[in-house]
Amino acid sequence: xxxxxxxxxxxxxxxxxxxxxxxxxxxxxxxxxxxxxxxxxxxxxxxxxxxxxxxxxxxxxxxxxxxxxxxxxxxxxxxxxxxxxxxxxxxxxxxxxxxxxxxxxxxxxxxxxxxxxxxxxxxxxxxxxxxxxxxxxxxxxxxxxxxxxxxxxxxxxxxxxxxxxxxxxxxxxxxxxxxxxxxxxxxxxxxxxxxxxxxxxxxxxxxxxxxxxxxxxxxxxxxxxxxxxxxxxxxxxxxxxxxxxxxxxxxxxxxxxxxxxxxxxxxxxxxxxxxxxxxxxxxxxxxxxxxxxxxxxxxxxxxxxxxxxxxxxxxxxxxxxxxxxxxxxxxxxxxxxxxxxxxxxxxxxxxxxxxxxxxxxxxxxxxxxxxxxxxxxxxxxxxxxxxxxxxxxxxxxxxxxxxxxxxxxxxxxxxxxxxxxxxxxxxxxxxxxxxxxxxxxxxxxxxxxxxxxxxxxxxxxxxxxxxxxxxxxxxxxxxxxxxxxxxxxxxxxxxxxxxxxxxxxxxxxxxxxxxxxxxxxxxxxxxxxxxxx
Length: 533
Ligand code: N01
Fold this sequence. Notes:
The protein is 31% helix and 16% strand. The chain is an alpha/beta fold.
């Protein structure tokens, strides 16, 4: 029997925080559906349930602004919420706004095909659904396609292996187990201290050391909460006018304008600030001037040497090959202190890389390690990975994967030439991953809603962008990055964390106010860089 297709207006891909908001935003006017791969809502905060998973932006900020009652009523227990609280919040929002009836869980989108004759997208899902719709909102997440090491011998390994995005629901009994964790990014730095406490022995396999600072997480005090709730609307508006969509304390002086004593005082205050990222904005030029960055990097290395007792281990933990902030600055709860425990060891796999799983553990070029449990905290095929894992065929039969073979091309991070009526939220070359993602995601969804509203009002069937617009956006993105030190590390920001991935720097770092102005300017300028028909 031929499958029956449903005809709708919009298909939303992903029920993470942006996808959930998109469901809420679009359902009133349009017939919609939302496909979600997981069997629950929350996206990042559904998948990343490893021990220690926690956000590093204050929860009073990192939360929805679209509903005054919601933001007044919701109570965050801590400054930086743990994953279970974020997942609970996502579920609360889904229930409170009755979003679930439009969300199909455990039903990943498999393919998207644009029919240029009818100007409709055909969506096929893993469960066999076939939806025909006019618009696609891809809220697929910047960090949702896990990067799994593909060393040989995995099947021969007799222990347990967990990627941090696939953590089991039932508690793991590790007390008699030798655990190995691969990677030292934000995820590992959160998980490792807890795994060290719970296991017999923890071995950390480090390829590149990370910079990290203490999170200063604590219960949310009532005065702070009250102050935020009384001023929410002004603060949310203010947040959108900041560079990174976050109300951290921005500096007024460059490093060179301070005496060494002033520099130290500012850096000590930043370290103790209990506010994430304060080191990256210790001076106006930390991310734009290598000398200023060196001052901050050396300060952070000094902290590592102070905290870690064994000088050899401390030296191994000190990043020396890239500027602080060029890889995502990590926030920890006792990461460096963990290396003072007797049951923790650090293995450097830069010069002697891991080459294989063995029956009993891992093999590097110079040793074998016996492990009962292996945790792969090896990160993500970021920004492009989630979309490239879907088979997406655009207007002229072009496949997105082919189009992006040498790196992603987009206009403003939300459209790709040849893929009409497909809008990305936090797409490659948008500010998404370096901005506070809930509030910037809400802004992007509202912006796309405005574009769709205009198309409908003006009677257009489709909107596309052009290769010229993509080139001019690439120039803007590269221009912004070239004034910074962001591209001076191999990271998921530039795809160099994945062997063979091409792309260059994939995030817009010109600041959110400029980003908004450019997007809004294009619309006001009669959709400059876009083709409507
Ligand atoms: O991933 P990562 P993550 N052999 O890519 C190593 C957000 N986040 O999941 O640096 C050996 O940062 C890799 O080594 P190298 C946040 O935006 C936020 O930790 O490529 N090692 C690296 O050490 C973050 O930036 C929060 O040399 C291998 C690690 O694995 C983003 O998610 C919490 C390897 C991967 O680090 C990603 O963080 C958690 C190999 N073959 C995450 N392959 C908060 O809000 C990879 N590695 C606090």
